[in-house]
Amino acid sequence: MMFAFFMLVVLLVTGSIWLLDKLVLRKNRAPNSPDPMLVEYSKSFFPVILAVFLIRSFIAEPFKIPSGSMMPTLLAGDFILVNKFTYGLRVPILNNTFIEISRPKRGDVFVFHYPPDPSIDYIKRVVGLPGDKVLYQDKQLFINGQKLDMGYIDDYAYESAGLNQVHAKRFKEQLGDVKHDLLIEENSMSREGAFEVPKGHYFAMGDNRDNSRDSRYWGFVPEQNLVGKAFFIWWNFDQFKRIGTSIH
């Protein structure tokens, strides 16, 4: 959000200098005289900044995954693209929807402004829709009283942020129309409970169920906080084979 605000300020400054020169200053300069340096830079940068601002605001925005809370779907160090118009076109900075296109579906991997601190962007999976009753108990997810299918795949080991070896089990879960992998640590404790999703809000969970601070801890994601739907991994410095992977 802060970067978008910074881009908007630069866009307004360079655009204002370019427009002022076109309408006023140029008339007071001698014919064929070179543009002042500030005007020249503004004329050069304004169209580029405008294009980047429009693309990031309304089409797609890049993000870097900072943690393992969405493993095994997303790894720390993945660079992803987020579709900015799937959930409707929004006013930059204010984030108000002015053209509604669709709403998050159960199973979507979505980016949103973290409710306790909207200056931070989070990425999780949509588990509960407005009006849903969500229960997480004994490592099992229930939605509206229905137990979600979850099949064991294999054992999964990885290094945590503190370089500790973590041993988990990987499962395949059916969440709406989406089948996705998730991780469960049998001997670890994570927040359980029953939750009813309010109107205009969503319940979000990480795929690394025992290592994710999500709606179980800090509450629901308001419609106002939506950023977009993650759909593509475009870079990873450590694992080139992940480049070009679609996100499900």
Please trace the helix and strand order, writing H or E for each element. Answer: HHEEEEEEEEEEEEEEHEEE
Mean pLDDT: 95
Portion in helices: 10-25%
Q: How many strand units?
A: 17
Shape-level CATH architecture of the largest domain: Ribbon
CATH topology of the largest domain: Umud Fragment, subunit A
Q: Spell out the CATH superfamily of the largest domain.
A: Umud Fragment, subunit A
Gyration radius, rounded: 22 Å
Give the low-confidence spans: none
Main beta sheet = 8 strands, antiparallel
Describe it for me?
By secondary structure, this protein is an alpha+beta fold. It has two domains: 57 residues; 187 residues, Umud Fragment, subunit A, CATH 2.10.109.10. It is built from three helices and 17 strands. Strands 1, 2, 5, 6, 14, 15, 16 and 17 form an eight-stranded antiparallel sheet that branches. Strand 8 and strand 9 form a beta hairpin. Helix 1 packs across helix 2. The longest helix is centred in the first third of the chain and has 22 residues. It is elongated. The mean pLDDT is 95.
